[in-house]
């Protein structure tokens, strides 16, 4: 009887020790998993600009699959997907004058058109005309944008677009900053079928940054999070691309003082003809590369001043 008791006690002790070892190993695994996960998240955030290259490709793949499964004779009236790629150079000519431009490519899925863009623009800082308290230096903008649209189901088009704009940051604080941008555009659209239209529209864009929401996190300071909403008032419509509203959250990464990349995910509501009834809803994946060609000596410019 004594030997049986000793065996039973031994089995119980071995069971207890085994459970302690299992719990210890589980605890180590848990700690390792949490640490490993935090390291991976930090690494992902530090290299977020690489993710910007992947997301548009995913959108392209999904749109390409939808195009293959759709009827070629149908025009989508639902939610389409667009890919926008932009290169935006800046050249600081003087303390007040900055020249900037754009070279871009855009397309839509299903593939109904491809669009190529170049522009030459300028902005000039001026003395505040109004709202002097709480606002930054006010700016006037102007330039010329050229759009060539290769349409698959109708004649190609060439558009020359002149614009004049006014921009002010109000309020212009460290935490709350709202940028107001008003723009008037004169649009001259030349169709390769011989048709020509002239359009006129007014745009108002409100932009801010949500960086202050992430101050308590360990997100790298080189990351920033812009968000904007833009309203379009088509006073005289053209044959294509009569936008109504755009809502755009985004994320950017500052590589250095001369380079930054930004990825935007936008919702666009657009009227694609002069008639009021034909509208589209688009989800736009946009990758922008900003490059400062020349920086004035000793001058530190906020990253959001890059166009």
The residue-averaged pLDDT reads 76
Shape: globular
**Low-confidence segments, ≥5 residues, pLDDT <50?**
22-76
Distinct helical segment count: 2
User: What percentage of residues falls in helices of 4 or more residues?
Assistant: 10-25%
CATH fold-level topology of the largest domain? Porin
Helix/strand/pairing class, anyone? alpha+beta
Rg calculated over all Cα atoms = 28 Å
Beta strand count = 12
Percent in strands: over 45%
Which tags fit this structure?
single chain; 307 residues; alpha+beta; Porin; eleven-stranded mixed beta barrel; 50% strand
Account of the protein in words:
The chain has 307 residues and is α+β, with helices and mostly antiparallel strands. It has two domains: 1-46; 48-305, Beta Barrel (Porin), CATH 2.40.160. Helix content is 22%, strand content 50%. The chain has two helices and twelve strands. An eleven-stranded mixed β-barrel has the order 1-2-3-4-5-6-7-9-10-11-12. The protein is globular, with a radius of gyration of 28 Å. Mean pLDDT is 76; it is low at 22-76.
List the helices and strands and how they pair.
Layout: H1 2-46, H2 48-69, E1 79-92, E2 97-109, E3 113-126, E4 138-151, E5 157-172, E6 177-191, E7 196-209, E8 223-224, E9 226-236, E10 242-254, E11 259-271, E12 279-294
Parallel strand pairs: 1-12
Antiparallel strand pairs: 1-2, 2-3, 3-4, 4-5, 5-6, 6-7, 7-9, 8-10, 9-10, 10-11, 11-12
């Amino acid at each position: 009887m004594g030997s049986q008791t000793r065996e039973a006690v031994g089995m119980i002790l071995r069971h207890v020790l085994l459970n302690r070892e299992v719990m210890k190993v589980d605890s180590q695994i848990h700690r390792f998993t949490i640490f490993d996960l935090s390291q991976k998240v930090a690494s992902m955030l530090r290299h977020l600009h690489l993710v910007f290259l992947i997301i548009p490709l995913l959108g392209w793949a999904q749109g390409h699959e939808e195009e293959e499964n759709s009827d070629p004779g149908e025009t989508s009236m639902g939610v389409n997907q667009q890919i926008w790629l932009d290169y935006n150079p800046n050249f600081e000519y003087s303390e007040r004058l900055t020249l900037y431009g754009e070279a871009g490519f855009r397309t839509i899925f299903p593939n109904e058109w491809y669009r190529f863009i170049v522009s030459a623009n300028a902005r000039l800082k001026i003395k505040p005309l109004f709202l002097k308290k709480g606002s930054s230096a006010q700016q006037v903008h102007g330039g010329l944008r050229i759009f060539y649209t290769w349409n698959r189901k109708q004649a190609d088009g060439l558009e020359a677009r002149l614009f004049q704009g006014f921009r002010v940051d109000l309020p212009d604080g460290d935490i709350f900053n709202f940028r107001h941008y008003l723009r008037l555009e004169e649009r001259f659209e030349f169709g390769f079928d011989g048709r020509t239209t002239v359009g006129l529209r007014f745009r108002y864009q409100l932009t801010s940054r949500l960086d202050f929401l992430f101050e308590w996190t360990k997100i790298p300071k080189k990351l920033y999070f812009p968000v904007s909403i833009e309203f379009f008032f088509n006073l005289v419509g053209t044959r294509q691309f009569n936008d109504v509203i755009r809502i755009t959250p985004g994320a950017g990464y500052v590589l250095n003082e001369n380079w930054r990349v930004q990825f935007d995910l936008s919702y666009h509501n657009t009227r694609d003809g002069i008639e009021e009834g034909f509208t589209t809803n688009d989800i736009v994946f946009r990758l922008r590369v900003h490059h400062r060609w020349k920086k004035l000596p000793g001058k530190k410019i906020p990253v959001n001043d890059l166009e």
